[in-house]
Design goal:
single chain, mainly alpha, 2 strands
Length: 80
């Protein structure tokens, strides 16, 4: 991974974390998806830990695929 690509990856993760902290789960998910598409390797353990922790602060849960290449953010919606 080039330095420029790594910086784009880190910036996408940062935007995801900030959006999570600001209660914007759709924006957070979009940023995390962007980071996942930039990364040519599975999500690093530290990043996965951060994603899970941020999701939990929003009352959501995060799931990581077996190969570490996909993240799903799940939110239980209140009854209509």
């Amino acid at each position: 991974m080039t330095e420029a690509l790594y910086e784009r990856y880190k910036e996408a993760l940062r935007r995801g974390h900030v959006a999570s902290l600001r209660g914007r789960p759709e924006a957070a998910l979009a940023a995390y998806v962007e980071a996942a598409t930039i990364a040519p390797v599975p999500l690093p353990a530290k990043s996965w830990h951060d994603v899970r922790a941020r999701a939990a602060t929003l009352g959501a849960r995060a799931e990581l695929s077996n190969d570490g290449s996909q993240v799903r953010i799940l939110v239980d919606l209140p009854p209509a």
